[in-house]
């Protein structure tokens, strides 16, 4: 069985953290640099994580301000 790509594994962990209450709607996620250190991956991997989370509307990005968690009730369902 092939290994799960890092960006999918990390985005699933962030979704699980939101559902468990570690991050609440409106909370700011750590910076790209902090997430790179935490998960020991490159910044391009974290960018893919953000693209995936943005696609399901789990986060919203504000240039110069950060990345924020949205309300799980508004997230799109996975296909």
**Helix segment count?**
3
Q: In whole angstroms, how far apart are the ends?
A: 21 Å
* Tally of DSSP β-strands: 2
How are the strands of the biggest sheet laid out side by side? 1-2
Strand content: 5-15%
Classify the helix fraction into a percent range: 40-55%
Which structural class do you get from the secondary structure elements? mainly alpha
Note the overall shape: globular
User: Helix and strand succession?
Assistant: HHHEE
The rounded Rg comes to 12 Å
Low-confidence stretches: none
Q: What's the main sheet like?
A: 2 strands, antiparallel
Q: What's the overall average pLDDT, rounded?
A: 92
Description:
With 79 residues, the protein is mainly alpha-helical. Helices cover 46% and strands 10% of the residues. The protein contains 3 helices and 2 strands; from the N terminus they run H-H-H-E-E. It has helices spanning 6-20, 32-39, 43-55; strands at residues 59-62, 66-69. It has a two-stranded antiparallel sheet with strand order 1-2. Helix 1 (6-20) crosses helix 3 (43-55) and helix 2 crosses helix 3 (43-55). It is globular and about 30 Å long. The two termini are 21 Å apart.
């Amino acid at each position: 069985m092939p290994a799960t790509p890092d960006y999918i594994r990390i985005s699933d962990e962030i979704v699980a953290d939101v559902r468990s209450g570690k991050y609440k709607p409106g909370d700011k996620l750590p910076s790209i640099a902090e997430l790179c250190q935490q998960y020991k991956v490159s910044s391009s991997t974290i960018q893919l994580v953000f693209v995936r989370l943005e696609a399901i509307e789990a986060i919203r990005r504000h240039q110069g301000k950060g990345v924020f968690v949205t309300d799980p009730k508004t997230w799109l369902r996975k296909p």
